[in-house]
Every structure is written in structure tokens, then in C-alpha cells.
Amino acid sequence: MTVDTEKAPLHLPDGVRAGLGLAPAGPHYFFYRHRAWVRAAHWINALCLAILLMSGLNIFNAHPALYWGNGSNFEHPALMLGAYADEFGMVDRGVTVIGGHEFTTTGVLGASKIDGQLLARGFPSWATLPGPNWLAMARQWHFAFAWILVLNAIGFVIYGLWSRHFARDLAPTRQDIAHLPREIADHARLKFPRGEKAKHYNGLQKLAYCAVIFVLGPLIVMTGLAMSPTMDAAFPFLPWLFGGRQSARAIHFLCAFSFFGFFVAHIAMVILSGSWNNLRSMITGWYVIKGRGRD
Amino acid sequence: MLAGCYDLDEKPWFTGALGKVENLTREAQHLFAGPHTLAREYTKADIAPVFRANGTLDPGTPDYKVHLANGFRDWRVTVSGLVDHPLSLPMERIRAMPQRTQITRHDCVEGWSCIGEWSGPQLAVVLAAAAPQPKARYAVFHCADPMTAEGDPDHYYYESLELREAMHPQTILAHRLNGEMLDVPHGAPVRLRAERQLGYKQPKYLQRIVLTDTLDGIGGGKGGYWEDQGYTWYGGI
């Protein structure tokens, strides 16, 4: 679908025009890139993931250590956020212990300030929901938004299959795979597809989205369920699959930070490849294609 | 972006909505787990070298000290409420009943787990002896550990389970841990084990079991000490 271009009031450089939310000068047109249900699912997902990450960090703070196996080997955590106190019992140092190696992370991990006072705390209050350590409330946030995330994901997958969104837009083609090395090189040089090519996800994008939707998503839900003693009774293979309940908890944590890593990369790509154009297309659906006929 | 969330958890409509999710979670888990699926049982090799004790580590009341000093000779677990035959079981009765020994994983709401071997009679057998009345819905467990100001009768630890979880084959009155008599930090002389539930649903220093059709009017009315502090009554996740 295309619509005719708007008329620019002044002849401005494209960079300035983009900043003003105007389509670039020259041959360009609006392209309807994201349908409403994709946009809705995207933003529901974004909200859920933000709340789940922050409430998850609050839950983690109740016992800020990870282990491998069924039980917790308290002497040998795989990861631990801890604090040291001075001779008066005041916390003076926060540490992160990974596989027995200790790193001082005062102020962020292990010990951080609340109302000006350094306290023993896994993740700092600005990263957690609620802000104070409050396991009961954090769990309520976490489970409520986990339900929304899962229902949203089920809807997305059903509609994505039925509408052929996955087959048409997300599944990498043989060509995508063949062009991957060039795609990676282009991304590294911050050279992004333009013109007609910007109408489709590129190979790297497809792989990243598929990995998040079809690998990371199911993994984080399954490892979450594997921490439930009732679900473990219902589905004994769940903890078994991940090497035990504590391993499942550790993988759940790694998945959460993989999601966060994806978020950082995603935001970076959105900004570098045209923040307003991308953002507009995910809010209104419309994306400006610049340079008709090129590429 | 999430600054607004910090106020939301002070708004009753919002916390009420979050609380409703607990019912959804409970029903969904009941649907999948049913009344009979068992928690995994491990081998002796899996037993944790040190089983962490959490919550109350010693009730410390004068009454408890007397019981401890005489080896819990006079300790009793009573079963009352909506039953036809109220019971008062001394420890020797509890030890003499048919025993179930299970090596299971204890999951704390904080996130850690420990594996241990527990022994004791199945609660279903005990309750059957008391003949529950048809309208009984909950088993409420009253304990000897005071949680707040000394002597306040409402502030001893208590918990409750749906009757179907109380009747689960792995729900036992455990008086042994790893082959030894239960020690004080782990709930001597007897505690509840409900293996499909989190740790706070498995009270220690157990004295009274009361079958009821409602949790109203007991403690803060939410069905348990931690529930009265805002934790969900359903403790399966």
C-alpha cells in the first residue's frame, strides 16, 4: 500500500527533516509496514517484558544467588551478589561473585544506596519493581504480567501462523542465509537496507526475531514453570530438561538478561536505522521508503 | 517509563486485580497437576549435606522449653473443627502410625532449594481417623512459634491448605529428617510436609489441625501468617 507524499514546507536536509518527523526529500513514499495486531502485540510485549524484568530482579533480591542442579549448594553458588560490612556492622562494599571469583561492584550490585545509605541489596532499587525489596508484591506483579505475556504470545503465534506473517515476513529464506555474511558486514558499518529492501526484514533481523520469539520466549516460560513445585509434579520433565530446579532458575535468569541484551541491540538498531521512521511505523504502521527505484 | 508502576501497588483496585491472578494461577495449576500427581522423589545421594533452616529457628517460649527439656513427651497434635471424631495424638502415636518416607526437594519462596529425607504418617490417614465432615474445605495448622509480641495468641505461626492438598499422598506429619529426630531449627517435634507447595506452606512446631469451611476470622483472615503479610495463599509457584 502506498500513499502520496506530504509536501515539505522548506527544502531541508534529510537529517533535519527526520528530526522534525518529516519524510525525506526526493522520491519517497509511505509504506504500510506493520499491521495493527502486530503493533498491539509488540507494545503489550514491551510493557510485559519491562515489568517482568524489573519484578524478576526484585524476586531475585530475596536470595541473590544462582546454583546449578536440583538443590542449592550454598557453599558454591554459580553467581552471588553479596555485601561486606565494616567493624560497626555498616555495609561498606558490594561484591559480585561469579564461579568463585569476586568483583567489587559497590553502588550497583551487592550493595547500593537507598535514601543515601549503602545497604546490602542484590540489584539496586532503580532496577527493581517495586523499588524496595518486597518479595510478596514483586511475585504478584511477575505472575500477573507473565500471564499477559503468555496470552499475548499465544495470540501472536496463532495469528502469525494463520495470517502467514511468520511464513512471509519472519522465516529466513535461502537467500537471506546466503547473504548473511554481507548483512553482518553491512550492520557492522551501520549501513542499513534502504529503498525497496527496507520493506522486508533482513536476514539478521529475521534470525534475531525468530530466536527471541521461538527460542528465548518458550525457554523463559518453561524455566519459569520449572521453578513451581506444583508444575514440577504435573510435568516432571520440566526440571529434568534443565538439569534441576536451581539450574532452571539460573537459565531463567540468563534468558532474562538475553532478553535485555536483545532489547539493547534492538533499540540501538532502531535509533541507528532511523529512529522516528521506525517508531512511527510501529505506532501508526506507516514507514517512509526513501529512494524509489534504487537498490 | 515505569515510574507510574510505583504508585500502582498502593492502589486497592490494582492490588485487587493482581490478587485475582492468584485464583487463575491456582485453577490452572490444579487443572494440570490434579489431586494425585506426585512431587519427584530423589535418592539418598541427592540429599543436601546441610539442609537450610529458615523462618523460626527456635520458638523459645517457656512452654516450648519445657517440651524440649522432656523430649516432647507431652507434646500433642490435635485434630478438631469439622470432624466427627476429634483427636489428640501424642508423639508416640504419631511415630507408631504407618510411616511414609520420602526424599524430596524443599523449595523456598526466596528461591533456594534443599533436598532431604522426611518421615511421618500421611496426613490423609490422620484426617481419615478424625472423620472429616463433608463441608470441611480447609485444614488449618496452628503452631508453637510466636511471630510477634510475646503472648499474643493471634500471632503464632499458622497456615492452611485446601483439603485436597492436605489429603495428597505426600502430605505428611514429618517427625524425622534424614533419619534423625527432627531438631529444633527444622520444627521439632513435628512439622507438615506438603511437597507440591513452597516452604512457607509447610509449618513447623505443629500443635493443632483444625478443619474449617472458611479462613475468615483466623489470624488476619488470609489463611496464614505470611499470607497476612501479603504473600499469596496459593503456594504452588
Report on the architecture of this protein.
The complex is a heterodimer of chains A (295) and B (237). Chain A is of the alpha+beta class and 295 residues long. Chain A has a domain at 68-122. Chain A is built from eleven helices and nine strands. In chain A, the strands form three sheets. Chain A has a four-stranded antiparallel sheet. Chain A has a three-stranded antiparallel sheet with strand order 1-2-9. In chain A, strands 7-8 form a two-stranded antiparallel sheet. In chain A, a hairpin with a 2-residue loop joins strand 5 (91-98) and strand 6. In chain A, helix 7 (203-226) runs antiparallel to helix 10 (245-272). The relative contact order of chain A is 0.15. The mean pLDDT of chain B is 94. Chain B is built from seven helices and eleven strands. In chain B, a hairpin with a 5-residue loop joins strand 1 and strand 2. Chain B has a five-stranded mixed sheet. Chain B has one domain (39-228): Oxidoreductase, molybdopterin-binding domain (Sulfite Oxidase, Chain A, domain 2), CATH 3.90.420.10. With 237 residues, chain B is an alpha+beta fold. The chains are: A alpha+beta (295), B alpha+beta (237). The A-B interface holds A 50-51, 54, 59-60, 62-63, 65, 67, 70-74, 129-131, 135-137, 139-141, 143-144, 147, 225, 227-236, 239, 245-246, 249 and B 1-2, 5-6, 9, 15, 17-19, 21-22, 24-25, 29, 32-34, 37-40, 42, 46, 48, 50, 52, 105, 107-115, 195-198, 226, 229-232, 236-237.
